[in-house]
């Protein structure tokens, strides 16, 4: 309130005033970093009895939080795995990066898959 910013944020307005006065700004604006999509495990089950879903999720979200797509599951006790191969391939082509553990699992489940090392 009370500041005439012309629809800009206060920080942008101050930087504009400093630039207009002929002095360099105190600091540059931080670059915008967008989150990537990660293919990773989401833990389910109960205590000492894990069961994992393979999901595509925003890398900034917590492990068991919201996800974009359910791509399969893995049971570590029976070593059973289900992978929705076409859906995984779609996400990988769009730039999603698998975690190390999921990458190993995908290589075993889908030998024709060539994971890029980024």
Task: Describe the overall structure.
The model has no long low-confidence stretch (mean pLDDT 82). By secondary structure, this protein is α+β, with helices and mostly antiparallel strands. It has a 5-stranded mixed beta sheet. It is elongated and about 70 Å long. The termini are far apart.
Structural class: alpha+beta
> pLDDT below 50 for ≥5 consecutive residues: which ranges?
none
Cα end-to-end separation:
47 Å
Structural Rg: 22 Å
- Based on Cα principal axes, name the global outline: elongated
The strand order across the widest sheet is 4-3-2-1-5
How would you sum up the major sheet?
A: 5 strands, mixed
Mean pLDDT across all amino acids: 82
Using DSSP, what is the number of strands? 5
| Strand percent estimate | 25-35%
Please tally the helical runs, counting DSSP H or I stretches of 4 or more residues: 3
Brief sketch in words of this structure:
By secondary structure, the chain is an alpha+beta fold. The chain has three helices and five strands, in the order αββββαβα.
Secondary structure elements and pairings:
Layout: H1 10-20, E1 37-46, E2 49-58, E3 69-75, E4 80-83, H2 85-93, E5 97-98, H3 100-109
Parallel strand pairs: 1-5
Antiparallel strand pairs: 1-2, 2-3, 3-4
Salient structural properties:
5 strands; elongated; alpha+beta
């Amino acid at each position: 309130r009370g500041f005439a910013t012309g629809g800009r944020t206060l920080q942008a307005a101050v930087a504009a005033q400093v630039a207009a006065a002929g002095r360099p700004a105190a600091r540059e604006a931080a670059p915008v970093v967008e989150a990537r999509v990660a293919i990773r495990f989401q833990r389910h089950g109960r205590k000492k009895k894990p069961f994992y879903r393979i999901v595509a999720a925003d890398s900034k979200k917590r492990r068991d939080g919201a996800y974009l797509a359910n791509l399969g599951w893995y049971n570590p006790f029976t070593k059973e795995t289900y992978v929705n191969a076409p859906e995984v391939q779609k996400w990988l082509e769009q730039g999603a990066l698998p975690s190390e553990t999921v990458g190993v699992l995908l290589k075993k489940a889908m030998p024709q898959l060539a994971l890029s090392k980024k």
